[in-house]
Amino acid sequence: MRKTRTALTVLALSAAALTGTTTGAAATDSFSTSRAAAAPCTVPDAFCATSGSGDQLVLHCGESALVPWSGVGYWDNRLPGGGIVKMFDYYGSVNHVAPADSGPTEINWSLVWALRAYC
Fold it and tell me: Rounded mean pLDDT of 79-100?
């Protein structure tokens, strides 16, 4: 019951500032960087997530979103002022943090449920 309540809380918080569509899951510990593969996602002063098929989700400071796809993709964090993005799993636990001014980095979106940008 606690896990369900936590997941619903994260879902509600994420939906409040939703900037993409829904689905989701968490991140793996094996990240690699590839500028060529993530090149299409180059939004300045934002966090940009890209699916394996090239769909994009963009977050600005203070925004959150549910991850709308699964499988391998990329993220690129260019939030201003040293902003970070926390990646949450289905249970509402932070499973990865995108450090300031980093990426593009490969990720398994199947393991990420929601994202939140902090600036």
Answer: 97
